[in-house]
Amino acid sequence: MGATVDGQQDADRRLLCLVAAGDESALEGLYVRHGPALLSYAEGLLADRHRAEETVQDTLLAVWRGAGSFQGRSTVRTWLFGICRRQALRRLGVHGGPVHVPIDAAVGLAADEPGPEAVTLARADARAVAVAMAGLPSIHREVLDLTFGAGLTRDEVAVVLDVPVGTVKSRLFHARAVLARALANDTDDGCAAAQRAAGQGGRR
Amino acid sequence: MRHPTEQLAEYVAGTLPAHDAAAVAAHLSQCVACRQEVAGWQHMAEGVRSRLAPAPAAVLVAVRRRLAASYAGGRAAGPPVYRAVPGARPVARAAGLLAHQWRLVGWRVWAVSAVVLVAGIVLAGWVSVPAQPVLAVVVPLAAALAVAGACGGDELPGELVRATPTSVRTVLLARLTLVLGAVFVAALIGSLVLSVAGAGGPGRLLAAWLGPMVLLSAVSFACSVAWRPAVGLSAALAVWVLRVLLASGSVDGAVGGAAEAMWRTSWPPLVVSAALVGGVLAIAPRLASSRIVRFGL
What we know:
The complex is a heterodimer. By secondary structure, chain A is mainly α. Helix content of chain A is 75%, strand content 0%. In chain B, helix 5 crosses helix 9, helix 6 (107-127) packs parallel to helix 9 (168-196) and helix 7 (132-151) runs antiparallel to helix 11 (229-247). Chain B is elongated and about 90 Å long. The chains are: A mainly alpha, B mainly alpha.
């Protein structure tokens, strides 16, 4: 698997070199490879598909202009997603300021033992998970998008978010806790509604 | 049993190194709890991936259009050059550069030098008539503090430095101009106020601190840029303490005469200062790149 990842990184780097030399089709190549994940990531941050597409346009233009200055200190995709994030935050009017984690999300942190959230999630219907995910705060959603959507390693995610690696780990677990809570609430609400409906039916 | 709980998300994402992934797989074959954990992450991964849609071509079309528009705007080939400072006219460029540096020099630098300067001027007005001796000691110190704080030890990320079209020399010179200009204006206002209050003629007051200020700032600037702010500050303080000792009469002899000749507004200190600043600016770009390499940025 490591070999595949390295191969992908090499391909990215080759494309970026071509972009630096002024090859537009190489820019297209990068877009084909990373466009879906970039769009979905930007949409998660901005909660708007149209603005997400504009953000990806800005990202590609920035890549076109800055390809020559890429120093290879990070991977190409880390660089791409970092640019995308800055462009998205710029659109939101946030200038790299700290993003706050709600306090209630800090409860139930990563333990060494498997936790009850996993049980909720493992039992949940995939569609319900996708729906609940749309309601996640962007701080949680972006770490999921980068990890599962973009397939970045934990170190790469840390570079994109400009946080320590340990923070990436804890945000992943936060995200899961919040998602599991949302799913559990949905289930409870469903039960309550069903009971209410049954009660009304009984009285009638 | 030690559970690889922290690695399971990466295992599901497929980003775990091969040997770690194998170890996790082996553990999963024996551990129901971790299998459940993996199922949970898997549902989350599916939730994320279900939103991945093929990238629309419209984005590329829009990018091509914007690129073509920027070419039509005057640049025939190659990526357009990023311009950090708006305005093509030299005066507007300089003003923009100084305004940028004004924001980049931290407020602490301004606060510390302002405190030293105000305290010195108040002291000069309070205790000494004429005020020259106090000003000759205080103003250079304020300037050296500000210069060391503003011009040394930039821990700017390397890629940022390289991506900026403004050269390291220009940036350093802009900061020096800005900081010295600010201290100069503040000290000038202070001197005029003292002069009005009867502490001596404005020309004499100015002459008392201008030469020493330039010299001490140059020492501070040279060492701050060549090494780091702490070195610049130490060097400036060493020169300053020497001068204070000489003025108090603790040291005498030939050294005293030579040092006193440097501590006034005359040619020798100005020439030495110009040589120091010029020399450091000449080697500044190489210093900047070696500093970046050293920090591994």
